[in-house]
């Protein structure tokens, strides 16, 4: 996987967070994840098709999902992983993926993204990941951690 592909995800996330949260997330050290892939409690999966193929997984614990949903819902307190919270977290993943697709298009790569699928379960295994998985960890003030796990071919 090329560095510019990873950079597109970093820039897409930072742009989306800045626009909707009014703040940037701190980028941690990017690293490779082993197989089998294990997700946190909340994981939003989006498929990538076209010039590149694979998956991107937006991975977070429940408290981080509450933080993200609250930010997207204008600061409304969020204390449960209900349908509204799931929808907000899935939409945030969709917005970041849309930013990434636009960046790839600007670089001459045409991709499509699938609708988001939210998985919830402690350490859920996500099937179909045979590519190298690059983890992009992002953290917010207050401790919310959000990982973008990218597996592209």
Describe this structure in words.
The protein is of the alpha+beta class and 153 residues long. It has one domain (3-152): CheC-like (Chemotaxis protein chec), CATH 3.40.1550. It contains three helices and eight strands; from the N terminus they run αββββααββββ. It has helices at 3-21, 62-72, 83-106, and strands at 26-27, 31-33, 42-50, 54-60, 111-113, 117-120, 133-139, 145-152. Strands 1, 2, 3, 4, 5, 6, 7 and 8 form an eight-stranded antiparallel sheet that branches. Strand 3 (42-50) and strand 4 form a beta hairpin. Helix 1 packs across helix 3 (83-106). The longest helix is centred in the middle third of the chain and has 24 residues, at 83-106. It is globular, with a radius of gyration of 14 Å.
Task: List its salient traits.
single chain, alpha+beta, Chemotaxis protein chec, 35% helix, 28% strand
Short synopsis of the structure:
This protein is of the alpha+beta class and 153 residues long. The chain contains three helices and eight strands; from the N terminus they run αββββααββββ.
Layout of helices and strands:
Blueprint: H1 3-21, E1 26-27, E2 31-33, E3 42-50, E4 54-60, H2 62-72, H3 83-106, E5 111-113, E6 117-120, E7 133-139, E8 145-152
Antiparallel strand pairs: 1-7, 2-7, 3-4, 3-5, 3-6, 4-8, 7-8
Helix pairs in contact: 1-3, 2-3
